[in-house]
Amino acid sequence: MKLLEKSQIRSWDLDTIDHQNISSFDLMLRAASVFSNWFQSLFFDKTRTIHVFCGMGNNGGDGFCIASLLAKAGYEVNVYLFQFNNRFSDDNLSRQKEVESFDKFEKFTPFPLEQKDLIIDALLGSGINGPLKGEYLKLVSWLNALPNKIISIDIPSGMDPDQPTSGSFVHADHVLSFEIPKISFFLNENSDYIKNWDYRSIHLNPGFVEDLKVMNYLIDYDLVKSILRQRKATENKKDFGFAQFCGGSPGMLGSVILASKAAMRCGLGRLAVSTPSIYHSSLFSSCPEAMAQADLPKNVSNLVDFQLVNEHVDAIAIGPGLSSAKESVRYIDEFLKANKKPAVLDADALNIISRNKWQPRIGAYSIISPHKEEFERLFGTCDSHYSRIQKQIEKSKELNIFIILKGAHTTISSPDGSCYYNNTGNVGMGTAGSGDVLTGMLLSFLAQGYTPLETCILAVYLHGSAGDSAAFKYGNIALIASDIIEFIPSVIKNINGK
Ligand SMILES: NC(=O)C1=CN([C@@H]2O[C@H](COP(=O)(O)OP(=O)(O)OC[C@H]3O[C@@H](n4cnc5c(N)ncnc54)[C@H](O)[C@@H]3O)[C@@H](O)[C@H]2O)[C@@H](O)CC1
Ligand SMILES: [K+]
């Protein structure tokens, strides 16, 4: 799904008005009906009074329209207009006539509300053009200190839709965004202040976005379904890729087993694992589907010899559990020099690269999957999640690589400057081995012939979905990396139907 910036959303509204021959007044009614239906499915208890706080733009207009619809549906509704200047939108003025009465504030003064009552926030929408000041600031600070549940229309009032907000905004319990989520919902800076968000279509003209060039995308079910291939009955294991996983060192076998199992569960045809030979029997007992390769790094004199063993390998993943011992450094050096295969680099491979400043040597179109600390070791510290994402995009372009920045909202950046936001996964996945599972999944899809971008999208989304299913069963405290692997089959089957 394409994610639009606020100026593009405004153009989409105008294009819809033009193409569908609908007035902005009627488009507002459409949006209000969508919100009102969503609201009623969530808050069906009509004994709580609903207080609708309206501003002066179209978001406030939505508020008046929604207040009228909810009153008609049998809710007890109070409406307040905060008129802190004289700049009403036309549709706002027209919609004011639809509610029987409302209280008007030209200056904000606090007033009592019952704790169980609900607040609908329709003060400001996507038309925000700077930080809140004066009366708005007083009002929003008061709202944020109340114990009442706040439900925001389109976006929490005061929040910038595209980037971190420089100032205060409404801390919402629920937000219903129109048509698509806002980019800023995915920033860690905002995560603590939007408890739940959702989006519903208001049937804006689909033709407008089809042709629109955007740089930001949300990875959603439809995108993943469109990428994941169906198998032909006549295909065999040779059609599903031959992958090589290089990792593990004394005391670090777990990552190898987790990555191997995850790779096989994502449909890989054949897997060769290069890990110290003392671990081969343990590997076979945990993942008998894998083949073991020569010792690594001890018996490997150079990568070319090593690759001759795997002359038909389709993709390589390197790094997890490798340690940063001298032999591993030499091995990564050789790998960067000689590798021509599609590659995934993670964990100790990234640590070795950052320590030796070998970032420019990473092969074109490789995938790297750092978490925040690994990312900052590679590319320097950043003062916010937003600035880290900006640097991620810049480095993808500069180094011609795909970067997966792992976190609460994992982002994938591509050499063309585009950025994909993921919305699956949960806090329980911050556990040892979770990243190794992702590396195995990446390796699997890459070896199966998916492009690096498709590989990143599939692996990141499915990893998060499997983690969500695991958290549903075990809870996000008890969840361990093996649980994620347990649910890979069902999430793939749910999407692919097979
Ligand atoms: N345009 C359309 O056709 C539709 C718009 N809809 C609603 O309209 C909203 C956007 O409407 P508007 O563009 O009127 O935007 P707002 O409702 O956000 O109002 C913007 C106005 O608020 C004032 N303002 C901006 N920043 C401020 C600040 N920091 N402090 C104080 N005042 C500030 C300015 O006067 C600006 O014109 C959406 O969020 C959505 O709720 C929906 O009704 C769907 C259809
Ligand atoms: K709002």
Automatic annotation (TrEMBL):
Q: Does the keyword Ribosomal protein apply?
A: no
Q: What is its EC number?
A: 4.2.1.136, 5.1.99.6
Q: Which residues bind (6S)-NADPHX?
A: 58-62, 125-131, 136, 154, 321, 371, 436
Q: Which GO-annotated molecular functions does the record name?
A: ADP-dependent NAD(P)H-hydrate dehydratase activity; ATP binding; metal ion binding; NAD(P)HX epimerase activity
Q: Which residues form the YjeF C-terminal domain?
A: 220-495
| Positions of AMP binding | 406-410, 435
According to UniProt, the reaction catalysed is:
(6R)-NADHX = (6S)-NADHX; (6S)-NADPHX + ADP = AMP + phosphate + NADPH + H(+); (6R)-NADPHX = (6S)-NADPHX; (6S)-NADHX + ADP = AMP + phosphate + NADH + H(+)
**UniProt domain YjeF N-terminal: residue ranges:** 9-210
Query: Which residue ranges does UniProt annotate as crossing the membrane?
Result: none
Query: What's an example Gene Ontology biological process for this entry?
Result: metabolite repair
Q: Where does K(+) bind?
A: 59, 121, 157
| Cofactor, free-text remark | Binds 1 potassium ion per subunit.
Question: What's a Pfam family in this record?
Answer: Carb_kinase
- Which keywords does this chain's UniProt record carry? ATP-binding, Isomerase, Lyase, Metal-binding, Multifunctional enzyme, NAD, NADP, Nucleotide-binding, Potassium
What subunit structure does UniProt give? Answer: Homotetramer.
NCBIfam families on file: yjeF_cterm, yjeF_nterm
Q: What does this protein do?
A: Catalyzes the epimerization of the S- and R-forms of NAD(P)HX, a damaged form of NAD(P)H that is a result of enzymatic or heat-dependent hydration. This is a prerequisite for the S-specific NAD(P)H-hydrate dehydratase to allow the repair of both epimers of NAD(P)HX. Bifunctional enzyme that catalyzes the epimerization of the S- and R-forms of NAD(P)HX and the dehydration of the S-form of NAD(P)HX at the expense of ADP, which is converted to AMP. This allows the repair of both epimers of NAD(P)HX, a damaged form of NAD(P)H that is a result of enzymatic or heat-dependent hydration.
Cross-referenced PANTHER family: ATP-DEPENDENT (S)-NAD(P)H-HYDRATE DEHYDRATASE (PTHR12592:SF0), ATP-DEPENDENT (S)-NAD(P)H-HYDRATE DEHYDRATASE FAMILY MEMBER (PTHR12592)
Q: What HAMAP family does the annotation carry?
A: NADHX_dehydratase, NADHX_epimerase
Q: Which family does it belong to?
A: In the N-terminal section; belongs to the NnrE/AIBP family.
Task: Return the protein name.
Answer: Bifunctional NAD(P)H-hydrate repair enzyme
Question: Which species is this record about?
Answer: Portibacter lacus
